[in-house]
Each structure stands twice: as C-alpha cells, then as structure tokens.
Amino acid sequence: MDESRTPAARLSDTFGHRCARLWKHVDPAIAWAFGCIVLVLSIGSLYSSSFLSPEYLLQQLKVASFLGIIATGTMVVILLGQIDLSVPWVVAVGGMMSTAATGWGPLGNVLAIPVGVACGVALGLVSGVGVAFLRIPSMVVTLAVNAVAQGLMIAHTGGFSPQDASSPAMRFLATGHSVLGIPNALLVWIVVGIAVSFLLTRTTFGRIVYAIGNRERAAYLSGARTRLVVMAAFALAGGLSAFGGALLAGYASKAAQAMGDPYLLPAIAAVVLGGTSILGGRGSYLGTVAGVILITLLQSILSVMQIEEFGRHVIYGVVIIAMLLIYGRGRRHSE
Amino acid sequence: MRGDGRYWLHEHKGTLLAFAAFIVMFTIYAANHPAGLNANVATTAANKGVLLAIVAIAQTLVVLTAGIDLSVGMVMVLANCLASTIVDGSPLMTALGVMGVLFVGAACGAINGLIVIYGRLQPIVTTIATGAVYYGAALALRRVPGGDVNSSLADALTGQLPGGIPASLALLLGVVLVVWLPFRRSVIGRAAYAVGSSEIAAYMSGVPIQRAKFVAYTLSGILASAAGLFLTFITYSGEASAANGSTYTLYSIAAVVLGGVSLFGGSGSAVGAIFGALMFRTIGDLLFVFNVEPLWQPLFQGLVLFAAVCLGTARLLRVHNRLDLYG
Questions:
Q1: I need a surface site. Which of A72, A118, B262, B290 has the fewest CB within 10 A?
Q2: Can you give the residue range of the structural domain that contains A165?
C-alpha cells in the first residue's frame, strides 16, 4: 500500500476493487434478466402506476411461484444436458391425483399433496430409468412418459370419476397469506428454491449434476455414479412438476386435464432466459428465478395492456429470441 | 462393388424395420376392419397418415442436421389458417394462394434457419420462441375457426385416383420424388448429413454447413406449410388451435424416432420417417378396430409409443466398452 495516500482514498480504492470483483462474479445473463425485469416494470408503470404497487407485485410473485416450482425441476434436468417434455401431463397428474386423494376421506385429505407428488416422482423415475439405464434420448422418453401419463389420467378420470375439488391444505398453500401478507405460494417457492440451490451448490449430488452436464463421460470416469444421479434428477423434476400441479389445483380449487399445457414452454424459456445453457452444465438458480419472474411479468403486463392474444404470443416469442441474441449465443466454429 | 450390400443394409436398417412394422400393423388392421379393406377405408386412413407423414418429413430434414424443429406444428397451423383465407376462388387465384402459403412456410423455415445459423442459438429454444410467434400470426389471421377452401382441389387431393388408389398417397410419393430424393442426392443433402454426424469435422472439411442448415430449415418450413394446406383440404376450414400445433410437433418427433432417424443427427431417412408416421397412425386405428374402449385408447397409444422407443435399447446389448454409453 502506498503510505502517502489518505486512508479514505485507500478505502474507496478497495471498495472499488471489491465492486469490480463482485461484478466479475455476476453472470451477465442474470444481470440482463434482472435488467429486463426492471425495464418491463418501468414500461408497465408508464401505462399505469399500479404496476409498481406492492399488491400487484406480490400478486405477480404468487402467480410466478407455480411456474417457479415447475421450472426448478426443468432446470435440474436441463443442467444435466437433458430435457423434460413430460411437464404438461405430470403437472396434470400432480393436480388430479392429489384432488382424487382428497376424495378418500380424512386420511386422504392429509395425504393429498404427498400422493400427487409421489405419482410425479414415479413418472419421473420412469423417465430417469429410460435416460440413465436404457440410454434413450430424454426428448423421446419424456415424450412417451407424457403420453402414458395422459392415457392414465384419461382412463382414471373417465373410468372412476374421482373427486376433482382440492383439499383445504392445497387451497391454503396456494391462495392463503400468512406472514406479513406474503402469499403462501411464494413462501413455498422460496423454501423449494433454497432447498434446490443448496442441493445444486453444496452437495455432491449437485456437483455431479453439473459435471454430467459438462461431460458425462468424464464424470463417469472420475467415479461419479452418474446413472443414479440422472435417475434421481428426473425423479426430482417429476416430483416438483407434480407439486406445482397440486398447488395449481389448489389455486384454481380444482384439477383439470389441460392444466399443465401452458407450463412446458414457459418453464424451458424461463430457465434458458436465466442464463442456464440448454446444453447443460452451466447455470445458477438465481437466473432461473429472474427468468420466471420476467416471463410472468411479461405475460401479465401484456394482458393488462389489453394487447390482443395474438400480439401477446408474437411479443412473447420475439422477446425471448431478442434476449437470447443479446447474451445466449453459442461459439463460432473458429473459436 | 461386393460388400456394399452390408453397408447399404446397415444404413437403411431403421427404414426397413419401420417399413416391416408398418406392413404387419396395417395387415392386421385391414384384416380385422369390420368393412374390410375397401377404397374408402384406405382413403380415410391414407389421408390421416399422409398428413402426419409430411410433417414427419419436415421434422426429419432438421433432425438430420442434429437440430430439432419444435415449430413445425405451429407453421402447419399458420398455413392452415392462411390457406382457409386465400386458397379459394378461380383456378388462378387458388394457384396463387397455394404458392402464397408455401412461400410463407418457406419464410418461417428460413427465419428459424437464420436465427440458428447466424444468431447461434440452440435450435430447441429458437423454435420454441418462433413457434409462439407463428402461432400468434395464425391467431391474427383466424380468431375464430372458419374460412373456406377451393373444394374441387380439396376433393381431388383427398379423394381417390381412378382405380381406387388414395390421391394423398400419390401426393406423398410426389413429395418424396420432388423434394426428398433430390435433396438426399445433392451436395447440400450430403452436407446436411455431414453436419449432423459431426459439425466440427464437417467444418474442417470445408462442407458448406451454413447453406446445408439453411436449406434444411427452409425446406422443413415449406413441407410444414404443405401439411397445413393438406389439413385445410381435409377439414375445409382453418383453426388457430395451439393444441393441434403442439400435438403435431410431438407426433412428428415420435414418427421420426419410430422411423429410425437418429435424434443426434446424421443418420436415417425421410422414407423411414414416413413409415414411422403411418405406423403411428395405424396404432391408433388398430385400437379402434379391436373395439378397445375409447377411454383406454390414449393409454394404449402411450404404452405402444413407450415400448417402441424402448426397442432402440437393443443396441446396448452390443456395447463392449461401457464408456461407449457416455457421450
């Protein structure tokens, strides 16, 4: 350190350094995604100041939690370098099986959410076995699992006409408020998010997930039990999708067949907008949070501004492409 | 050229298997159909099958370059909505309308290709996003289902040729002869296979990768819009249905896989995908013929699809080095 400089200058110097170092650690994708959230909100506030009110923002975060929980599972699978196309019907299975369990009496009422999640885990395990042990491309096996789940649910609802109203616990988690008026759904998402980011960054399982996404062969050769990890990751994704479905059933107070359809593409888009590489191995949970909030806000603001449905689809697609062109581009051949 | 037969067999194994499986299934279907195999039964089956087969060829072209096109269904829906608006009136107007629909399809495919090539985005996310845009355009054209189409052209293409042969099969043959075979035999077609096998190796050998990808995506768009046209000829109307679009996208992937085209790119053929599509349709019809309760049909269809994709696992038995399993 240079003795001739004042302590204040030294302090500001180290502060500047620290900021620079901190900035280096920030993933540009996440910075862009949060920047876009601010941009979307400020465009919205030009239209109406209610876009900045706490009620509106909390309401949006509540709606975002459902997508957030589903996208969490999608992200884990994408980190492996795989993809889960079974989201639509696994979400529906989660919603429909938990409402069906509600119809079994008092015990079923308690077990509603666990039953739904367990069904999702089971379907995820099937995909996981297909990908990890049978080496079928994940796009194909999850497509097939989606078809089987659809068939099961159509046979189940048509043949046994189970109850489709959700249990009080599901409604409480999805629509209630507990602490300081914070929606319970948001609290659930926070808990899920913290648990999964702990899993991804602080446990062997998480490190192996990233390793497999980078190069499965290397992960295998370094002694990781890659197949078990892949299987577990798909089971986790199935469970989270189904959990999201159970909450959605609570939110709408009933389960419906097509309830999962609007979640597959937004979940993938949210994960990718958050800077996770679709090829796997790279990405952080914070980015996914940003992606989910961004997608939810975009959808909400476009509908509040009364842009017609076709315009919403077009803007939605263009924004995703534009953002990815800014920061999600691949390498050149010559690099 | 002795010894070539083995390589030929190896290259076309997937196609031949799909062909054999389709023949077996269709024979069972025809033998058990309550009305027997008359020209009408064949025409109805052929129309449904050809529609999916054209989408499957569109998907194959992109999959061969190791990409994937999740917007094929949406391009088809867009073409359907457009065709129900402009393919009508005098023969000249109709012809211009058909050209217009195919042109829009080509433009959609070209946009996908340009974003993938020059934007360097992954095909899967690109086509998810462009699919949303194309669906929005379809919705703008047709907010409520409706419209009309030149019925004499529609009837000619969905009806029967003299002799009772379904006209749609002739159409499919035409697509194979006019689009697929020239593509497969051209330098660009070979380049598409090379890109799919190993993009780096293709780049190093000076293969025109960008042109190959661009042609593959554009042709895929044209074929997807041709499928949309054909859908309009079957239904006589247009509908901007998101469910329709995503169903056809997913079915096209299923057909491609059943037809022995590798999703990793570089191997398989559109002919295989055609038989994959016809087979996939026949599975659904078989359940109908055997009087499976409609309630259970989706489950059986799902299980058959699942079993079919598991068949590819047989190759694991021939792996000597476990390391070969990991990419």
A1: B290
A2: 66-282
